[in-house]
Give the backbone structure.
Amino acid sequence: MRRPYHRPEASGPASARAAPAGPAAMTAGLGAALAGLAVALAGLLAAPSADAAELPIFDAHVHYSHDAWATLPPKEAVALLRRAGLKRVMVSSSSDEGTQKLFAEAPDLIVPSLRPYRTRNEIGTWVRDASVIPHLESRLASHRYVAIGEFHVYGADADLPVMRRVVALARQHGLLLHLHGDVDAVERVFGQDPGARILWAHAGFASPPEVRATLRRHPMLWADLAFRSDPASDGRVAAEWRETFTEFPNRFMLGTDTFSPERWWYVPEHAAWARRWLADLPAPLAEGIAWRNAEAMLAARRPPIAP
């Protein structure tokens, strides 16, 4: 059964509390947010950063889509990412041109991922749109990527022909799959390709026990914590998440999820918030979540299949 796209309410960093709860709210607040964004970013870029000298971060969940380019040109976007002390940033965009703009500006920083969407409006339709496949094949033939995604897929939709071809393309090119979906979708993809590597966006918005159970079944499944505030509050890691991180010290990583232009405003704040709660963990565990796990995930790449 197809499940509606949704984001949970958040109560952690101010960025999560201020983020819109759904499409209608996002539209209502977008004009005001964009109006102040340029001024706010100018201040952010000019201010010195104490965080940049602290724990480096690999942000595994960033988008630079078509509605962000005019407000935040590539040079300024890269400056903002560096100011936040980000070590590397995995970027996917609607359309992929946004990712290529950032990669051209900072190939040392940007890790390109290929999103199937040509516009954000395709989030709910792409998995039934056969034209997505030649688009992906064309981009894969002309650019370098580490992953396909982030894409949204739920339940039995993961067995549709378009999604099956995406899984096959990832196998062919030795790429990670950045999957936003439920446990059922994750299981179906591993059923198609038991050797797949999946980065589970938002840890599926699942509870820590469900996340642990899914990770136990699949050693090549990682999870990003983008747009989740439940792992920590006031700089202290929640007990269930501490247990989860301790059992799987090599499987979690950070993400901001700049799903709309105004979310770029919060990249430095989010990084600072993450550093505060990571300081509540043992140093090796904190470093893993901050950046080492993402690097190891990419290093685990399967070789492409020879043509």
About this structure: The first strand starts at residue 57 and ends at 62. Residues 23-46 form the longest helix (24 residues).
